[in-house]
Amino acid sequence: MPPSRPQRADARRNRAALLAAAREAFLAGEEESHVEEIARRAGVAVGTLYRHFETREALVEEVYRREVDDLCAAAGTFLAQNPPEEALRLFLLLLVEHAAVGRGMAVALETIMVTDSPIFEDSRERMAGALDELIEAGTAAGTLRGGVGGRTLMRALGGICALRTAEGWQDEAVLITRVLFDGLRHGAVEAR
Amino acid sequence: MPPSRPQRADARRNRAALLAAAREAFLAGEEESHVEEIARRAGVAVGTLYRHFETREALVEEVYRREVDDLCAAAGTFLAQNPPEEALRLFLLLLVEHAAVGRGMAVALETIMVTDSPIFEDSRERMAGALDELIEAGTAAGTLRGGVGGRTLMRALGGICALRTAEGWQDEAVLITRVLFDGLRHGAVEAR
DNA sequence: CCTCAAACGGAGCCCGACTCATCTTCTGGG
DNA sequence: CCCAGAAGATGAGTCGGGCTCCGTTTGAGG
Question: What residue stretch is flagged as signal peptide (chains A, B) (predicted)?
């Protein structure tokens, strides 16, 4: 049932501007992601921000839900074009790269993966689903260990993405991701 | 050079009380770890807290430095009584268990491992040192992959400990830690 | 146009970290 | 034992950031 009165044009515009501004602010770093600052960037007042988003957290969530959408889509693409365990490897590395986009974004990724706040439940579920798909394909092919759920793996990744520290962090992340990946293959060999 | 005037007795007592109260508060959960609350638990006023610790963070740091001391000591013990890769396995699991002590403590562990704040530099260095020792012993014995530094591994662990979510998180953590561990052994087998 | 619900603005509230002017308590020397 | 005065403790107050509330503005259906 579509709402009888859809939504005013300016409201839609402002909502979009807020999401864009928030994304920008998160990418830029934590310093400039106060609500006042985000509102300013979007050219609205804080009150307007709160009209569209319950809390600051809710805004973060919405921004991130969109990022997660892109990531999940990528998982499907990889799986369609590669052997399952290669698809998983690519996906893990994509996550790392993705976190590299910006400090603020990594913070969000970390939060979404690592916190158990119900706010992120939905995004987490979809992300875990994407990973499950990859892992199951690999398990079926006998190249990956079973028994490790998408949720579990995702949380470890959250930690890794949370590295985002000093220079060189990305190499570290890639390395540790590879170790994790090898651990997943290892289990298949050992029949656990 | 011992300070000419050492430190007043009540000051030493209060400092100890603050550290104890802070630890207690962190273990209890984030809710009760506001500075006012910590001061109250210790039976002093906030001003006193700030006389002893530059910032709230500095207090967290000090509390955690002590935890890290215990952990590092355990690493040595394990290594003395087990084959190197078994010692590493035990140590990794000890970290997970340690994080289980309390939500608040896990937050601290996470922060210390994952943040690059210079405040935790010291603790991080010692922790990485303990891990390096374990890894190097295993590498020398040919049972663990080389090329993964203690710092790198530690940060991944920080992420895992940061799980501390809903029920069942600890099983998840143990599982993913095992995957990580298998990845480390796997590299040795493959000669990378 | 005109109406009015929807949307916006922004001063101000609340809460939590932190400061500082003032009062209290040790302690070492006489 | 006592006193000086330095070390220490206090807690009301400041500040910053998230959030609220209500008076004002604006888009759109009639």
Answer: none
Determine which of A85, A131, A155 to mutate to test the interface with B (most B C-beta atoms within 10 Å). Answer: A155
Tell which residue, B25, B29, B31, B9, has the closest CA to residue B59. Answer: B25
pTM summary value: 0.76
What are the tokens at B149? 């530094």
B126 and B42 share a domain? no
Confidence band of A166 (pLDDT split at 50, 70, 90): low
Low-confidence ranges of chain B (pLDDT < 70): 1-5, 99-120, 158-167, 187-192
Task: Tell the burial category of A143 from Cβ atoms under 10 Å away from its Cβ (0-12, 13-18, 19+).
Answer: middle
A150 shares a domain with A113: yes
B191 belongs to a structural domain: no
Q: Are residue B131 and residue B95 in the same domain, yes or no?
A: yes
For residue range A52-105, what is the model confidence (pLDDT) as tens digits? 999 998 898 888 888 888 888 999 999 999 999 899 999 988 887 776 555 555
CB of A42 closer than 8 Å to CB of A15: no
Q: Can you give the pLDDT at residue B118?
A: 65
> Same domain for A168 and A121?
yes
Q: How many C-beta atoms surround the C-beta of residue A67 within 10 A?
A: 18
Can you give the pLDDT at residue A192?
A: 40
Q: Which CATH number fits the domain that encloses residue B9?
A: 1.10.10
Which range of A101-105, A120-124, A147-151 scores highest in mean pLDDT? It is A147-151
At A13, the pLDDT band (50, 70, 90 cuts) reads very high
* pLDDT at residue number A1: 46
Contact B107, B32 (CB under 8 A): no
B49 and B77 assigned to the same domain: no
Residue A191 lies in a domain: no
Domain span including residue A11:
1-54
The partner residue sitting opposite B116, judged by closest CB among A155, A165, A176, is A165
Based on the structure, what is the number of domains in chain B?
A: 2
Secondary structure (DSSP) of B56-90: HHHHHHHHHHHHHHHHHHHHHHHHHHS-HHHHHHH
B116 Cα to chain A: minimum distance (Å): 5
Q: Which of A151, A175, A184 is closest, CB to CB, to B179?
A: A184
Do residues B73 and B85 touch, judged by C-beta distance below 8 A?
A: no
